[in-house]
Amino acid sequence: MTAAPMRNTRPVYAVSSLLALFAGFLCYYFFRDSNLIFYNIFNINITHNNLNLSHNFFLDFVRYNLCDGLWLLSGILLLRFIWFGSPRTAHYYIISFICVALLLEFLQIIKNFPGTFDRGDVFTMVIFALLEQCIYFFARRKGLAVSGIAALALLCAGCATTVSFQVQRPPTLNTLGIQRLAVMPFTTTDNSPLQRQAAAWLTNESLTRIQATNHFTLINAAEVERVRRTNGNVEALADALFGGQVVSLTVRNSSRELSYKDKEGNIVPYTLYEREVEMAFNYTLTRTRDGSMIGPVNKSVTTNEFNENRAELRTPEVMVQSLVQQGLAGLARDVAPYMATERRSLMSETSKDKVVKQRAKEAHALVKAGSYKSAQNAFLNIYQDTGSFPAGYNIALLIEVQGDLEGAVAFLQQVYNDTGNPQAAAEISRLQRAIANAGLLEAYKGNLSQRDKVIALMVETLPSAMPGNPRVALINNSQNEKETAEIIINGIIDGLVKKNITVVDRNNRALVEMERSYQYSGNVSDDEMVSLGHEAGVNAFVLVAITGSGGLRRLSVQMLDVERNTILYQSPQTDEMNL
Fold it and tell me: pTM score > 0.70 for this model?
């Protein structure tokens, strides 16, 4: 029963064998030097290629192991082609071929046997052999040719209707409330020249990438250091400090003695030099308000390259620079909101009804044409007529693409109630996470620091408690952190002026004298306050102070009526006033 469907498969094995062989050769040609065994077998003298790739698991797999798996696969497919009419015989030959291939690999452990033993090669060959066997027996049992399965997969991928749309995502790290950011110099662990240079490159590249986000107001690191030296208040300058450390930086140089055959069959020895550079570093943000840390983010990056001429290897400095670029590739996404492209596939109609399938096909065509609203209506008609889950799923997806996440959730909930399909429940959970992210992004758009939130609250609250025709003066009566209090007062003044409220210049002699009295005695008598108020021409004083310390600091604001010497407003002792 399985022979007929498999009859036209034989040429596919031959073509697939050649493709696997060619792919393995390309891996050697682009990623490897003239290795002894491969070039000896074919007596090839070829210019050695040095395509420099970063050093990581996947690229090492492509460079060193993939070709062995592809060549083993090529041999297996070739045997299936040769013994196509006798599967049992082919099976024996394939088992023998795999055993010989693995034996040759293990023999490379012996010192004088050509080649280099690599456990990765063994692992790759075993995996390729097992996958080929699984696919072959699955295809025979299902009465399908391997080529038919591959063609069907390609057909489905090619015919699936997909939509692409831009979404904004919150950063990996919680940087809410950070507006003013200072990028501080990276530090080192051993103070070697190369580490110091790496630290400088990391600092400059971090500054460039953070600046490119356009999300922060960058504060000069030198100004932060100046404030620190004078025991000043860094918080008055920046909301957070970005910094990091080079944890380790290692340069390894090695060489291997190899050889190849030239056109005359002569063994030509050569030395292959390798340079590997590995760097580990981290970065973190520290809030100046309370010293809390965001992070750290730890990075470990490696790069290496090979060349027959030691002098042509890149210098360690150049390689470190490439590692800096590689290691900081995700920095912007760590600290600031970013745009990403999502690609989603619509579901194909599963109904056997030809009319329904044609209507779904027309709806898919509208999606491909970009007419999302029309496509949504077309799918809605199908869903109302048939209760088709694919149609309901596609409607919700199109609602989401048009930016209505809540609408998509509401419709999917209806679909779930109608059909009970668990995929609808999974999509509802995904969309609810997207809605939560959207709420978080709204907070990032404002990106107000806690201090700015308190300032905004006072600007909104104070006017309603002021006397008629208000002329107010703001007094700094804080006994500690007077610089921060000054910043808050200036922010409140700016907000009140924008509301057309008269605020008396703080350089007024009477106000300067009043602040001086608060500074020395911590209090001003009622008679003195009335007298100074009349002299300054104000009818209300707003006294601003900071109480507590560290993460327990709170803004205290009190507004006094000059004529009646009564309290017009007293700020609440609640978390909304925390700094």
Answer: no
